[in-house]
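Contributing new complexes? Match this layout with DQA.
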Amino acid sequence: MVEKITVINGPNLNFLGIRELGIYGNETYKDLCEYIKNYCEKKNIEVQIFQSNSEGEIINFLQNAYYENVKGIVINPGAYTHYSYAIFDAIKSIILPTVEVHLSNIHEREDFRKVSVTAPACVKQIYGKGKDGYIEAIDFLTENKY
Ligand code: DQA
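Output block (do not edit by hand):
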């Protein structure tokens, strides 16, 4: 059976390749999506990738995943990580195993980034590994490591 994974990226991740190059690197959001899609194609995993700058749209997408027989969710909530109890509640609500990913090392940046209000709703948090963090998260879910 082909497994389905949903990848959700939050605000400003569409600006990869433009935003803070010293932190996030030169690769664009399109490069990130292609990297994930190529990996999933090789592994015969069906992947759906969604990005939004809006909290409500992210919540709607999480809720849709509940109805779509998805194996798990990989989410980079961007700055919502640090204060969105609504996204925390949505992750809790849908029951699906969810891995939180951050490209940068949030524990070695500003103090406000050290707190994730969404991580306690997730089965794992991965940070500071760039785009490979997404691959590790996909493997973690598809290999039932939660
Ligand atoms: C980020 C880290 C967040 O603190 C920041 O607001 C982002 C990106 C990361 O991938 O490293 O937008 O989630």
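Reviewers usually confirm one structural detail per submission. For this one: The two ends are 20 Å apart (CA to CA).
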